[in-house]
Amino acid sequence: MPDYIDDELLPLAEQFKRSPLDLSGFLEELSDKKISSEMYEVLTQISRGDKLSFENIEYLLTVEADKDKEVLYKTADYFRRKTVGDVIPLRAIIEFSNYCRKSCSYCGINSTVKNLTRYRMKEDEIIGLAKRIKEETGIERLVLQSGEDLFWTKERIVRLVERIVDQLKMKVTLSIGERTREEYDAYRQAGASNYLLKIETTNPELFKSVHPDDLLTERLQYSKWLSELGYINGSGIIIGLPGQTISDIARDIQYFRDLEISMIGIGPFIPARGTLLEDCKPGSIDLTLKAIAAARIVCRRVFIPVTTALTTLSKGAQIEALKCGANVIMIGYTPIEYRKNYNIYNGKARVGIDLALEAIEKSNRKPPNYIKWGDDNAQP
Ligand code: 5AD
What is the pLDDT of residue 356? Predict the structure, then answer.
């Protein structure tokens, strides 16, 4: 029996039910704290079961006073505990190709980036690695990510997914970008249960300024298709893209709520060498944590991974994120010879299973009971 809320158990109907949540004990706990009247108002609205307004979400993203921030994080943590519990599910991510047809201006593997060896893992290589991951760690959820690489045709992806699902009995999340509805349908039929296609930002101008090849209206449409086709729908944003405002982030969070997104990855922007944005400053850790907390409070029963970008900026922030709303960790299993060429931003950290288990312990959470990992194991 799983000791955690599995993806299939994220019941969508309940996810957004806005029944009043009994905050009485929780509010009492806070009674000795001097919180601002705005924060008190937001908490009261939550306890009445009101849908948080745009202004209130914006407010949560701007709290500065230590007491208010502490209350924001505690409230998010309370919602995390009530909705998805204390167990932190782990996923294994394999970045199987860094070829990309797009030129997103923040991304270190975009098609215009030189000084990068392009690679594609072979199907058997991916299968062999997946098998070892399952055998050696117990992790059964695989995230297959790549640049937008059309070498991986519909037929090739279908065969890969089928082998992983049917032969290895693992669950597959795909993260391979924009494809046709028909292709998304074929992957779903082949057994992929989740799809991760981040919106990155819902501000149309900002979206356009960083995505020369894409249209926001189309990206929104792709994401809707994923929900219609029965995927557990993953999205997310980058915090601190040049020109992004707090209001943009508040709208992004409203979008996740309104579209009933089930997985929300929120990570700071980190400049990537060889890109148009290479000299821009990184996104704020503090704002990323506030956005994670606000997303948890607004969207409730959702999966919020600690992004590798956040861990790259600070190992401490990885632990903070788990304490203010985040509840999933992705473990990087891309083989070492390819990993250095999947630097979507500078200095990308490797989140190994040891680091993940340490973060779970330090944040007072529980590892899932399927984990077989012990000190004497060698990492695949
Ligand atoms: N900084 C932070 N996140 C980035 N991503 C891509 N490039 C960057 C960057 N420079 C994120 C995007 C993408 C995911 C795979 O990585 O959100 O969806």
Answer: 97
